[in-house]
Write a structure and sequence with these properties.
The protein is an alpha/beta fold and 256 residues long. Helix content is 40%, strand content 12%. The chain has helices spanning 8-20, 25-32, 36-49, 70-83, 87-97, 106-115, 184-198, 222-229, 246-255; strands at 143-148, 152-153, 159-167, 173-179, 203-206, 233-236.
């Protein structure tokens, strides 16, 4: 157990005195509620340095093997000025030019460039919000809901990414099909098969992820433009509000 926070130095001095009076290590551990290892440590420090040895020592390492030299830092900064590349590519280039040098990890190089004021901040490209009201749901095949479940592993360890499509009114699961890649080509093929089997809805409600939306005008993607050409309205829920597609999310919970 730890030392009491108050009068820590006094407790250590008392421990030394108790030991000098003949208390055993086991008895001292019980009296002062510390481990035997801790007692041996303070006895050793007292023997080496007296009472001064009982004070807390700085935990700052005396030597840091991973600390970068000024020369390495200068090379990294100069390389950034010269090529202005990303960190991974920059590290590859430095390694190619000087293969015998142990160049630091990308994360360490990032700290070097941050201190030098040479970091790049990418402007996050956001999907334009969907401003139109959702269509009312009064019958089957008016609105479909679609989403990628998010990858998970099956019992045999295989990773799958299922695309799910359901009818918003009946909550009937139209499709739950694993795909090799969550791209437009594979998603379109699944929707085409669903259209042939069930007909086409008036609207399809999705989130703002790929391939349902993009950062283009009105957030349209190739998939959503294809829907529009077929006369289907692509509806998108508000970012960060999955409850707007709650019926479909509830189905995902059941699937999980």
């Amino acid at each position: 157990m730890p030392w009491k926070e108050s009068n820590t130095m006094d407790l250590r001095v008392q421990l030394i005195q108790d030991y000098a009076e003949g208390h055993s290590i086991s008895a001292l551990a019980e009296i002062h509620q510390v481990s035997r290892k801790t007692i041996y440590k303070w006895l050793e420090r007292h023997e080496e340095s007296g009472t001064a040895g009982l004070a807390d020592h700085s935990r700052t390492p005396l030597h840091s093997p991973a600390k970068l030299s000024g020369e390495i830092i200068a090379h990294i900064v100069a390389a950034r000025h010269r090529w202005n590349w990303g960190l991974r590519k920059l590290r590859v280039k430095l390694t190619q030019e000087q293969p015998l040098v142990m160049w630091p990890a990308v994360s360490t190089m990032a700290e070097v460039l941050k201190r030098a004021g040479l970091t790049h901040r990418r402007k996050r490209v956001r999907t334009p919000p969907y401003a139109q009201p959702f269509a009312s749901i009064d019958a089957a095949n008016q609105t479909w809901c679609a989403d990628f479940k998010g990858w998970f592993r099956t019992a045999d360890g295989e990773r799958i990414d299922p695309l799910t499509i359901s009818d918003a009114y009946s909550r009937y699961l139209l499709r739950c099909q694993a795909v090799e890649k969550t791209d437009t080509q594979r998603a379109r093929a699944i929707f085409e098969a669903a259209f042939h089997e069930y007909g086409m809805p008036q609207a399809i409600r999705t989130d703002n992820g790929v391939p349902f939306a993009s950062s283009a005008v009105a957030g349209l993607s190739r998939l959503s433009v294809w829907w529009m050409k077929l006369g289907i309205v692509p509806e998108r829920i508000q970012a960060g509000h999955p409850e707007q597609n709650g019926r479909h999310e509830r189905m995902h919970r059941t699937l999980k």
